[in-house]
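Re-run requested by the PI after the first attempt was lost when the workstation crashed. Everything re-entered from the original request form. Ligand of interest: 6-O-alpha-D-glucopyranosyl-D-fructose.
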Amino acid sequence: MAWWHDAVIYQVYVRSFADSTGDGVGDLRGIIAKLPYLAQLGVDAVWLNPFYPSPQKDAGYDVSDYRDVEPLFGDLSDFDNLMGAAHRLGLRVVIDLVPNHTSSEHPWFRAALAAPPNSRERARYLFRDGRGESGELPPNDWQSIFGGSAWTRVGDGQWYLHLFAPEQPDLDWTDQGVVAEFDDILRFWLDRGVDGFRIDVAHGLAKDPALVDMPDHLDPDIPPWVAQSRHPFWDRDEVHEVYRRWRSILDSYPGDRVTVAEAWVYDPTRFARYLRRDELHTAFNFTFLMAPWDASALRGAIDDTLEGLRDVGAPATWVLANHDVAREVSRYGDGAIGLRRARAACLLMLSLPGSAYIYQGEELGLEEVRDIPPELRQDPLYSRSGGADPGRDGCRVPMPWTGDAPPFGFSSSPSPWLPQPPTWAAKTAEAQERDPASMLSLYRNALRIRSSREDLRAGGLQWLDTDASVLAFTRGTGFACVVNTGPEPVPLPAGLASARVRLASDPLGRGGDLPGDTAVWVELPA
Ligand code: ISL
């Protein structure tokens, strides 16, 4: 079985992991210095958020050169050194590919602006004439995910499409030059030894050729970045051609290279289409991430996921957090209760069949930082919504490594690009390493057990009968996980009472009861 079927992949948010230069922004050399920490944590691979040259209008998701490293983060030789160091420690490296849009500073977009309407240069993007008497209205009514119209007008009166910020013009994937360029970009990084790609906005590359207005049938309650059926730009059938093409490129390389799609597609059948045998290997499972802390919601997400993937044979992925969503400690209720639930969620996630993702700081139990001063907030989602949406800076605050005051060893600069809360003194990796009851110790122990047990990685999942507020399942014949999402203690399910406890997210009650918001891993007698 290829490594990515059961891998645990750690997401490194490059800007916020470790700063080696003292400019307050994380960088590749900073990551190299911390690779031993990741190896000791026990993960199999890292996924790096975009580190390419970029004006940083959307934290690097606005790429101006797909074949180099942003000087803030280092250079190509730092990248090569990172690859070498990671591989020596047995860690694979997955990088982020941003194919839906470039930066407005990309040479292609500059050339498009300099060229006239209907030129070869404009054909790589979606330039159109406007509506209204003199073209003063946007070509259609699409809204940007970050707020406002998805169209911006240029000097000669034409408009261009940007599903995200105006500094992120969408590429036209019907243009063969665009297709060929990305083939080449994939090869550039595969030749440098990368183990795979995370595909940004994988459900968004194809647009309705007529660029029709938003149809009436769409549900306004569904978040604007989530696919719905017959949508003019999400999850259209044409995107699959791109992925078949990329699969054949990856397959032509030695080793097991992997793709993981960021595809916000909740319909399990439509989701599975990205993972057909000749398309992408895996995709983030946002159904699980979005589920509230509730046994039946979580069980529903798990069942839908496993059921949806059964026919395509792709492994499930499990994700609790990333750089776009509020941290799970906060989503699950903040404070002591949020942390308690996040600890239990860790054991749940790491005992489900498939691969799992850990977002940096999740292993430290970091919470969402809500009090970042407005003038320091960087996310375009905040500024473009006029502050109505707090944006995603709160989950992107730099890592606390050591010491008892900010910047907690992240940087030698006293002011990292986002400020860290002083209360993180108790959450540093250094403080948690010494404490066997810490979140970091829980993640380490769980990962050690997971890697030592074949049944946890490859065994089937079988649900056990339990109370409505409890999730209980076996993996193979020798292992079970029980999660109590309710507030009251419950006895372990019949049959597990004599099992040996391997790990618990919090201490069990007297008589072996499972307290509220607690999970336990048990070994079953042979
Ligand atoms: O983060 C979101 C809502 O909180 C989504 O709208 C998000 O923008 C969407 O999931 C696409 O995300 C990816 O592409 C964006 C970038 O801003 C995100 O960081 C990235 O993960 C544009 O490249």
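Saved to the shared folder this time. The mean pLDDT is 97.
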